[in-house]
Structures are given as structure tokens and as C-alpha cells.
Design a protein that fits this description.
Layout lengths: L29 H20 L9
Length: 58
């Protein structure tokens, strides 16, 4: 079975959601570290794309 996905840009303002993640600080799992790095990248990208908009207008 071939899996396929398609995406299309949304018209108008893109909706956002709040995401919360918690972990034990002593957990050194490489997978966890990669996940946390991706969260940081996504957060930075969201912050730069919302530059000039207030938190209430995101």
C-alpha cells in the first residue's frame, strides 16, 4: 500500500493552537532531545511569522 498525503495552503488567517509538553530533565533520550529541538524550531518559526501581531491576534 502506498501512503500519500497532500497539503494545501489555507485561505485567510492560519489558525493556531497551544501546545504543551513536559519531560523529566534527567531523560537524555536522543529521540526526546530531537523532539524538543523540533518544538524549539517550530516555536521560533511561529514567533518570527507572528512578528508585529499581538499574542491575542495570533
Amino acid at each position: 500500500m502506498t501512503l500519500r498525503a497532500a497539503s494545501r495552503p489555507l485561505k485567510g488567517e492560519v489558525p493556531t493552537i497551544d501546545v504543551v509538553a513536559a519531560h523529566h530533565g534527567a531523560n537524555t533520550s536522543p529521540i526526546l532531545q530531537r523532539f524538543l529541538a523540533r518544538i524549539a524550531e517550530s516555536r521560533a518559526a511561529a514567533a518570527s511569522s507572528s512578528h508585529g501581531r499581538s499574542a491575542n491576534n495570533r
